[in-house]
Amino acid sequence: MNWLIKGTSILREQNKRKALSFIRHLGKTSRQDLVTLMNVSKNTVSLIVDELITEGVLEEVGVIEPGKKGRPKIIIKLRDAGFKSLGLSSSKTSLECSVTKYNGEVLEEKAYTIDGTNSGQTVGKLRDIVNFFIQKYDQIIGIGIGIPGIIDSNKNIIHSSTHLGWLNVSLHDLIKDVSIPVYVQNSVNMGAISALNAEGSHGESSSFYVRIREGVGGAFVLDNMMMNGASWTAGEIGHISIDSQGKRCECGQRGCLESLINHDAFIKDAKLSNNDPFIRNGNIKFDYTLLHSSEIKNIIYRYGIHLGKALVQVTHLMNPNQIVIDAPYNIYEEFQQGCLEFLREHALKIPFKQTDIIFGHKRYNMSRGAALSAIINYEKELV
Questions:
Q1: Residues 348 and 217 in one domain
Q2: Within-domain flag for 3
Q3: CA geometry: angle at 73 spanning 25 and 41, to 5°?
Q4: How far, in whole angstroms, is CA 42 from its chain's centroid?
Q5: C-alpha–C-alpha distance, residues 349 and 336, integer Å
Q6: What CA–CA distances, in Å, run from 55 to 51, 83, 138?
Q7: Tens digits of per-residue pLDDT, 257-274?
Q8: What's the pTM?
Q9: In the listed set 34, 61, 78, which residue is the last one of a domain according to the structure?
């Protein structure tokens, strides 16, 4: 599919993508309702919908009979076999991949074991995976790639990844050979898109997302737009120093939130208390012993306080409508208690009360978020 739109076709393509966005969010609608939502003519909507039906993207699924007045409404929705998106997310040990329908439902997921610290091998594997899925599925409208680090999304360069040990790694050679748009972002941004979609948070004007795993990252979403900042580090909560006398972080500072509460910190703290956690598929395995250990609960409570210290700054500086916390520690009441107690005592009362704090109850898939990011970028690309 040719995605380079020029000349007088731009307005029509803009309307087409606007219609797709409405249908994606609504699930089902009608031509008449699209006319009202889009504020365009009946003829414009009719041409767009007919074209998308011909392309196999939309289908008619039934009729709603009117009341006393009006014409019947023919209901339309996205076809399962229509537009698709590909998302990939890299970590130290794996590459995760998701192929989604245009509505965000997952068609296929895979994980590949890699040495993520080897940038050359990782980029090569990314290229192989992209080529494989482009050949396997038709009508892929975009590819999202999430990598931990400071990323220039316009030039597709990973300037620095302390987590992976990458420095000035370009994805130009991968992208230049791909005939569809590729969007590269910090992987935490991709996690944010996945989390906000899962939590039904598209209506919130501003959201802050925190992800705690091998590292600790954050992302700030304002009016459905990811805020990257002048040097692509907006939302970098993991490197807020909350203890000037704390242990040295990989970034060189002391007492960074990431160095205090990430997976490595927990494993070390747990072993000091004679508990022995282990990692499975990138997540801490909380068995019966860990879930009921008073020593572990004390550690987790302290982690909640550490997070609360950082979130006070987020609450004051960014004043989001909501904060979504994606952490393996969420299953502990002690973690939530420590975080909320610190916020309640130290944050300004009005912003604290007006900020909805959500402790997620499931893992938000970053590769699915990457696929969703490609869909979102496709819809807004011509705006």
A1: yes
A2: no
A3: 75
A4: 35
A5: 18
A6: 6, 9, 12
A7: 999 999 999 999 999 988
A8: 0.85
A9: 78
